[in-house]
Write a structure and sequence with these properties.
Keywords: Metal-binding, Oxidoreductase, Zinc. By secondary structure, the protein is an alpha/beta fold. The chain is built from 13 helices and 17 strands. The protein has helices at residues 41-45, 94-97, 111-118, 161-164, 170-179, 196-207, 220-229, 242-249, 270-281, 290-298, 320-325, 337-349, 368-377; strands at 2-6, 12-16, 28-37, 61-69, 81-84, 87-88, 124-125, 142-145, 153-154, 188-192, 212-217, 233-236, 257-260, 304-307, 329-332, 361-364, 385-388.
Length: 389
């Protein structure tokens, strides 16, 4: 079969690899009909995620058709159309039972690697390094789905992939980001990053009762998407000072909640950006935390920071005094997709949400290297790429 394989920083190839096989009674094999390049895949593409090995199949946002099931899978049959969450949960451990699926105790067979860095193991994620499980990713013609008897969502046959695909990852990530804000009536929410996750975080914040949502980015096409589809007010951080603009737009009080939908490759301006870029290249810090710094200073007193952008290691020059003295609450994590997917599917079926607006490019799987390039470089107004095996 064909699959997108990682070969180092800024290099992916579409290669012929062996088809996956059932390895465990709770496995299923899925023929991929649509898979997306996620913003967090760019962290892999850029070479920022450790424990990747050359030839690893990447990708974690996908849906498709069941073509084989293990003996322990009783809820699926051949021909079922399903969407699969990017995080892998066993369904039976303490964390899965509490709907904290991305903290699963049992799905990562390489727990010893993660424990050295994080102290404890978290769930595996498809195609996201050997420290995070070493599972083959879904930018391929077929993928093995472990623990297929829990978590996956069966979807109707008559709705286009483009409306359903993103309940695999981008929509629940944005939705969870808004939920972690504990939004109260009248709240103002600021969202850094107008990619797919940021767009869905903004829409979700309004669903949860926010009075105003403010979007922060530097690309006009992304800001326009936030204005048009998420009904957000917008700030271009290359044109105005974000902190000053937020004070003016909130009557001087600052946002009640701030959502980071950017993560470890955040861009700043001026000397700070040069500092972070240099330290990251020299491996003196692993992640660029510009958004974290800006949120901690810009957030209003007693506010909440919701961090959904991916961070992998260590950051520098964090204004923790601002967070402590203003009494800020930090909430964060990989998304618990299985908790939200049925709810989000129902919103789509009820006509309350059509997420397909974020797609700017659909490409055959063979064109994945091109898709990664234009997504990373923000060429051709690229915001979201869907690959069709």
């Amino acid at each position: 079969m064909k699959a997108v394989c990682w070969y180092g920083a800024n290099e992916v190839r579409v290669e012929n690899v062996p088809e996956p096989k059932i390895l465990n009674p709770r496995d299923a094999i899925v023929k991929i009909t649509s898979t997306a390049i996620c913003g967090s895949d760019l962290h892999i593409y850029g070479g920022y995620i450790p424990t990747m090995q050359k030839g690893d199949i990447i990708g974690h946002e996908f849906m498709g058709e069941v073509v084989e099931v293990g003996q322990g899978v009783n809820n699926l049959k051949i021909g079922d159309r399903i969407v699969v969450p990017s995080t892998i949960g066993c369904g039976h451990c303490n964390y899965c039972q509490r709907d904290m699926w991305s903290l699963c105790d049992n799905s990562n067979p390489n727990a010893w690697i993660e424990e050295k860095v994080y102290g404890y193991v978290t769930s595996a994620i498809y195609g996201y390094s050997h420290a995070i499980g070493g599972y083959a990713g879904a930018q391929a013609e077929y993928v093995r789905v472990p623990f297929a008897d829990v978590g996956v969502v069966k979807v109707p046959p008559d709705i286009p992939d483009e409306m359903l695909l993103f309940i695999s990852d981008a929509i629940p990530t944005g939705y969870m980001g808004a939920e972690l804000c504990n939004i109260q009536p009248g709240d103002i929410v600021a969202v850094w990053g107008c990619g797919a996750v940021g767009q869905f975080a903004m829409i979700s914040a309004y669903m949860m009762g926010a009075e105003k949502v403010i979007a922060i980015d530097r690309f006009p096409e992304r800001l326009e998407m936030a204005r048009k589809y998420a009904k957000a007010e917008v700030i271009n951080y290359e044109v105005v000072n974000v902190g000053e603009a937020l004070k003016e737009m909130t009557g001087g009080r600052g946002p009640d909640a701030c959502i980071d939908a950017v993560g470890l490759e955040a861009h700043g301006v001026g000397l700070e950006d040069f500092y972070d870029q240099t330290k990251q290249k020299l491996r003196l810090e692993t992640d660029r935390p510009h958004v974290l710094r800006e949120m901690m200073v810009a957030c209003g007193k007693g506010g909440t920071l919701s961090i959904m952008g991916v961070y992998g290691g260590f950051v520098d020059k964090i204004p923790f005094g601002a967070a402590m003295n203003k009494g800020l609450t930090f909430r964060m994590g990989q998304m618990h997709g299985q908790k939200y997917m049925h709810l989000l599917l129902q919103l789509i079926l009820d006509g309350k949400l059509d997420p397909s607006f974020v797609i700017t490019h659909q490409l055959p799987l063979d064109k994945a290297p091109y898709g990664y390039h234009i997504f990373q470089q923000k060429e051709d107004n690229c915001i979201k790429v869907v690959l069709k095996p």
